[in-house]
Predict the structure of Thermosome subunit.
Amino acid sequence: MFIMSEDSQRTQGRDAQSSNIMAGKAVAESVRTTLGPRGMDKMLVDSSGEVVITNDGATILNEMDIEHPAAQMIVEVADSQEEEVGDGTTTAAVIAGNLLGEAEDLIEQDVHATTIVEGYHEASEIALEAISEQVSEEVVDDEVLKQVAESSMTGKGTGGLTAESLAETVVEAIRHVELEDGVARDNVTVHTQIGASSNATELVPGIVIDEEPAHDGMPSEVEDASLAVLDVELGVRTGEIDAEYSIDSIDQLNSAIDAEESEVRGYAETVAESGADVVFTTEDVDDRVASYLATEGVLVFEGIGDSDAKDIVSATGATRVGALDDLEEADFGQADRISAENYGDDDLAFVEGGAAAETVTVFVRGGTEHVVDELERAIGDALDVVATALASGEVVPGAGATEIAIADKIREEAAGIEGRKQLAVNAFADALDIVPRTLAANTGRDPIDALVDLRSAHDSTGRAGLITSGEEVTIDDPFDYGVIDPADVKREAIESATEAATMIARIDDVIAAE
């Protein structure tokens, strides 16, 4: 009796577990060398020849053409980490891969997968307690936030800018969107523009959109602007059906032209008389309307995207209007300055300031597309971790110190756990050693020697990380060097890695349809 298709493939037992674990470990290994301030970059080339150069774990895993379902679970770990806290994707993936490696060794020793899962979950609870114990008692002020941002960007491609200088911009941006009930992270956007050194990167208190004025004769800059956001086509109305009109004389033709001109001029006069200095519309603007408005000194941008319209409304306090007759002064938004600027082949509109401004843009510059893309990723991660740290008010030491502390506490607690589950708990602690070991390897130090020294320093001082400063590598307290991570980044990495590893370890039957 055939239950499955003859073309189906089935892998069971140890073979299935081994295949899944091997796939997960291979994916984790692919990003391991990118970890830390001395991490290396990866060059990813797709089938069309497009190149991505980065050391961002989430980007690397998403760009890879991964088909194995177990390997895709590791990618999901990175995606979850990126979505929740914005950084620590490589750490989460590497820990997940090493947890699988330790699970494989236990399975070969005839430890049941269910026992491993139970031990891993118990160890993860101990790990979360250890993270809380490592939280600094220091108030998370601007200086601490800058250290968090700088730690996040160290080792990533930041062009000609230092992580320290970018950190100031990042913190200023997040402080701009800090509210009484939290941080409006979505109100910070990053806009990239090729054509200048990365040193030209700046913070724009408002938004930047890819648009140009509807007419060359319009002003390129308006100060203290009253602006309208419309969903209105400023042109001759056309019917929804095809129709033909018979004109028998020049007088009839002139009347038709006059009527059309009157309609077009009416649109222009309505807009001009409304008092709006600047108009953004999601629809098209007739050339004649644009010409009339240019004469009146009104700056108009046509065909803007819906998302841009929403951003403008958020940044200026304007109300979107769907009919020109409904346009009133109460619908206007306010901006300190609206300007149209040209950057080579690109035209940009800057909407800055305003009484109701809630949005801020990090305007990223760079000499090449690869530079601005990597800079955008680095700044995006830094914005996320600063927002996370500010929202929670909890930071922990970086440079592998937290992982050393977690592993130490797990081994200490494991002594009180009975049965084979103790093996799984100890294996969890061993898996966490991959973080400091990888940091050491990427700095050129012997991983084993570095791990021994870190454990010894932790036992004597209570906090020890692998600090990289220039060409020197020192074992010391990361807080003294400003190497700091949000506690939630560590928590999320532990939780997501544990979930993925235990899910993969429990699979003992793989059925694949051809």
Summary: DSSP finds 16 helices and 20 strands in the chain. The longest helix spans residues 250-274. Residues 32 and 94 are 6 Å apart (CA to CA).
